[in-house]
Specification:
The chain is of the alpha/beta class. Helices cover 32% and strands 23% of the residues. Helix 2 packs antiparallel against helix 5.
C-alpha cells in the first residue's frame, strides 16, 4: 500500500473543520477546569480566614493537657487564665527576627491548674539580659493564638542553658517538673493581671494553616481537563482511521490484471503422438 501523506487527510475541509470544533470544545473544558480550581482556592481562603478571625475560646475547650495538639486547634485564638510559674522555668528561643533585628522569643509557663501549664510566647527581646525579659508573676488572663512545636530538634540545647534553638514542647517538658500542654500560645494581649513594664515586643502570630475546603472542586477541575484531552484524542483516532481508509482506496487502483500465459496452446504431442494402433481387447492389432 502506497503511503498517503497524512496532511492531505488532515487538511480536507471535513477533518479541518472537525479539528476546529474539537479545539473549541477542549478550550471550553479547560476554562471550566480553571474555574473549578479558583472555586477551590476561594473556599480554602475563606475557611482559613474564618479560623484565624473567630472569637477567642478557652484553650481547655479545644483539647486537654492529656491530648496531643489537634490540627483544628492550630491557628485558633484562645483565652488562657492562670498564674505565672517560677521565673526560673522561663526559656528563650534564639534567632528570631523582628523587623530588621535578630533577637529572642520569651517563653514563660502559665499554670492553668495545679498540675499543668501552657507555654506562652510573651514577646520578643533583643537579648536575654533585656529588662523586658524579666519573668512576670501573679495571676493573669490573656488572649493569644495557638501554634505548634517546630520540627527542628533542640534537645541538645537544654543541657547548655535555657536558650533553645527551636520551639519544641518535647524539649521544654524535660526542663520543668509539671506537665505541659502540647502547644504554645503566642500572647496578643493581657485581659487582666499585671503587665510588666517594660514588656517584650508583641510577636505577630504565624499565618494559620490552610484549611483545604472544597476538595471536590479540585476533582472537578481534573475531570474537565481529562475530558478536554479525550476530545482531542478522539479527533486524532477518527482522522487516523479516515487516513488509513483513504490510503487503502488509493492503493487499490494501482494494480494491473495479469494476462494468462500461453493461452490454449497445443499440448505436446498431437494426435500423431498417440498410439496409432488400437489394441483390441483380444490382444490383436488391427491394420
Amino acid at each position: 500500500m502506497d503511503g498517503r501523506p497524512l496532511w492531505r487527510t488532515v487538511l480536507t475541509p471535513r477533518w479541518s473543520g472537525l479539528l476546529l470544533l474539537a479545539l473549541a470544545i477542549a478550550a471550553v473544558m479547560s476554562v471550566l477546569g480553571v474555574w473549578q480550581l479558583d472555586v477551590y482556592r476561594s473556599k480554602t481562603d475563606a475557611a482559613t480566614a474564618k479560623r484565624a478571625e473567630g472569637a477567642p475560646v478557652a484553650l481547655q475547650s479545644l483539647f486537654s493537657i492529656d491530648e496531643g495538639l489537634p490540627a483544628k486547634a492550630v491557628g485558633r485564638r484562645v483565652t488562657v487564665s492562670g498564674t505565672w510559674a517560677a521565673g526560673a522555668d522561663q526559656v528563650f528561643i534564639a534567632d528570631r527576627r523582628q523587623g530588621d533585628r535578630d533577637g529572642f522569643w520569651v517563653a514563660s509557663p502559665l499554670m492553668v491548674d495545679d498540675s499543668g501549664a501552657v507555654m506562652v510566647i510573651r514577646g520578643w527581646v533583643a537579648s536575654v539580659n533585656d529588662p523586658a525579659a524579666a519573668a512576670p508573676s501573679g495571676p493573669v488572663k490573656l488572649t493569644g493564638t495557638v501554634t505548634a512545636s517546630e520540627a527542628e530538634d533542640s534537645s541538645g540545647d537544654a543541657a547548655k542553658g535555657r536558650v533553645l534553638s527551636s520551639l519544641r514542647i518535647p524539649t521544654i517538658v524535660h526542663m520543668v517538673d509539671y506537665r505541659l500542654y502540647d502547644a504554645f500560645v503566642i500572647q496578643a494581649s493581657v485581659e487582666s493581671g499585671d503587665v510588666p513594664s517594660p514588656a517584650p515586643a508583641v510577636v505577630p502570630p504565624p499565618p494559620p494553616p490552610t484549611d483545604h475546603a472544597g476538595l471536590r472542586n479540585v476533582a472537578y477541575a481534573f475531570q474537565w481537563w481529562i475530558f478536554a484531552a479525550f476530545t482531542l484524542w478522539m479527533w486524532w483516532r477518527i482522522v487516523m482511521d479516515a487516513h488509513r481508509t483513504d490510503s487503502e482506496s488509493d492503493g487499490s487502483g494501482d494494480g494491473t490484471d495479469g494476462g494468462s500465459d500461453g493461452g490454449s496452446g497445443g499440448e505436446p504431442g498431437g494426435e500423431g503422438d498417440r498410439g496409432g494402433a488400437a489394441v483390441e481387447s483380444s490382444g490383436t492389432v488391427s491394420a
